[in-house]
Amino acid sequence: MTVTTTQPPQPRLRVRAIGCALIAAGLLQPALGADIESVERILNTARAFAAETAGTSPGQEIQIEIGQLDSRLQLTRCAHPPTAQLAPGGRTEGHTTINVRCSEPVSWSLFVPARIERHLPVVVLERPINRQQVIGPDDIRIERQAVSTLSNGYFTEAEDVIGLASRRRLMPGQVLTSAHVTQQRIVKRGQEVTLFSARPGLIVRMKGVALEDGSEGARIRVRNSSSKRVVEGYVEPSGAVRVAL
């Protein structure tokens, strides 16, 4: 089922059935002398809870898949609409389980498997990227993707990744995550750098050799070329290393 609104950009909701529900023990026994609970009402309860749990935001598309119930299921009809909650360990995104319950006139409970998937426009690679390559505007595109499995985060704006460097070789079509990129390396190990210390009215400069790579703001070790002493300092945008007096 697809639900859309007329005020773009609004999220879309798609719902379909998946798998088989996990039925609590004893729920396949006939409910003698009582009305039978509608399977459709049980599924609708789980579906409505999943939609409420997923929430909505402009530009998003939410896809909800609800498990099917065993055709032999016979439960005493609930005196009021059944309630629903996440089962212990259930997640608000990805594969999850919803617990549908009734308390009157008899108490019953069952677990319905579901999948709640959020689709967002995210940054995707347009072409191969080599390790330590700086990412430019032509290297990426914006594409709608499922995001529940992107545990390392993702980017929704191209400006957030342009100018960053790749941590490793990446292939076209990959969703770019925070694990893939880092600040551009300014200083390389073995590179000669300028060490400087500053305080009001005084600036001291000296030469040194970087003992490790460093991006802007990174703290690295540098060997003073004159004293041979190893000091630590912070990489400036210019490539100089600021150390304490």
From TrEMBL:
Residues 120-182 form the SAF domain. The keyword Glycoprotein does not apply. Its main location: periplasm. It is found in: Periplasm. Keywords: Bacterial flagellum biogenesis, Cell projection, Cilium, Flagellum, Periplasm, Signal. Belongs to the FlgA family. Involved in the assembly process of the P-ring formation. It may associate with FlgF on the rod constituting a structure essential for the P-ring assembly or may act as a modulator protein for the P-ring assembly. This is Flagella basal body P-ring formation protein FlgA. It comes from Allochromatium tepidum.
